[in-house]
Amino acid sequence: MARQPYFPGWNVVIGSGVGIGFGSVPFFASGFALLAAAMAKDFSWTQSDVAQAASIYLLLQTVAYPLCGWPLDRWGSRKFASLSIVLFAGSLILLSQINGSLWQLYAAFALMGIVAAGTNVVSYARAIALWFNRNRGLAMGIAASAQAIGAFVIPIMARKLIAEHGWSWTLIALAIFELIVCLPLVAILVKDSPTPFGLLPDGDPSMDSAAKTAPAARDMAVSDIVRTGVFWKLAICFAIMGMSFYAIAPNIVYILTKKAGMGLGDVATIQAVSGIAVLFGRIGFGALLDKVHAPIVGIISLVLTAICAGVYAATAVPALIVVASILNGFAIGGDTDLMPYLASRYFGTRAVSRIFGWFLFAFFLGAAIGPVAFARLSAHYQGADVPLMMLAGLQIVPAILFLSSSVKNSEAVDRSV
After folding, report:
1. 76: helix, coil or strand?
2. CA-CA-CA-CA torsion sign (233, 239, 242, 248)
């Protein structure tokens, strides 16, 4: 069988990118602040009031990630992602109808946190893993990088719509966009597996050539996976990665204004530069995962995080701070690529959605700890320098764990605790 000139698996990547780019993560990350500010103005809510809605949403979405795994592995990416988009749109419409009651706000964001988890990378990792073996890292990186596009487009759309039509109609417009743009594209382009179409992963002409270029890991049951030391080592790594990134991100204004004496405009510019770096980091690290042993790629990401924290602690030179922010953007791109890639590469595709869901749970559990821990340490040491250096040193722990899991796929999946 000859190799096709265009491999349909890239349609799966495009469809996944559409769903991921306008899923709940970019909506919340880039649109929540604008919508919450408009709601607070209309209903005379305080910043603390709307911040509690954010906490409820993040907590429940973190809990929901592992719960996505079973239906994904049973029904496939296409059906579950499509259902999640419909439910996400419904939650947006429900949020648009609140009438000033805080309990309605909290209930709407609680519902969104639960039903919208499936609009993100977790829903598409299984399909991409089945369509790609040799180019799996690049495919996942390209699809995940769409979050950066959504994070750029959503606030522009939201700002204009809020100014012209108000926050309620803005939410309804976003829901309509989900239903008439995202849903059809995901339903048409995302196919669960190449097998029904008589194709092999990566478009390889024969199973022999596919096995020679990138041998796949043996599929494992979840009960067997959680008894391996590699699973727990990786979960700890991702928890520390999540804690490290979110220790800096929510506190970046404090770090740069107090340490470097920067204004809010300068901080916003640096954040924008870092956001662009995330886009290229996801694609770059995704391609690197296909060429370099994955734990080594993880260590590279950790080194970038350590350098960023160290530079923030050691200098107030603007040029160096910009470089550090770019490295931090690259690092988070590597973090998010590693989770689905390692879930499929080490443990096979049978339970990839459930394992990726647990890795996400670990990542965001760490993310919940990071901001508070950093703020308290900064208050204790009366500045951010010591906490930043501690954060840089902390990267040694996941680096050691990555090195200890740096074995061949067959060895990784067979090693028990």
Report:
1. coil
2. negative
Angstrom distance (rounded) from CA 368 to CA 45: 24
Of 121, 89, 140, 151, residue with least CA distance to 19: 121
Neighbours of 390 (CB within 10 A): 16
Residues 125-147: tens digit of each pLDDT: 999 999 998 899 999 999 988 98
Supply 164's token pair.
């012209």
Nearest partner of 174 among 15, 5, 32, judged by Cα: 32
Cβ burial, residue 243 (10 Å; 0-12/13-18/19+) = buried
* Cα–Cα dist 124/121, whole Å: 5
Backbone torsions φ then ψ of 206, nearest 5 degrees = -150, 160
pTM above 0.70, yes or no: yes
| Residue 77 near residue 9, CB atoms below 8 Å | no
Q: Phi and psi for 99 in degrees, rounded to 5?
A: -120, 25
Proportion of the chain in helix, strand, coil states, percent, rounded to 5: 80, 0, 20
Q: List, in order, residues 6 or more apart from 59 with CB less than 8 Å away.
A: 113, 368
Give the span between the Cα atoms of 143 and 100, in whole angstroms: 38
d(CA 4, CA 199): 10
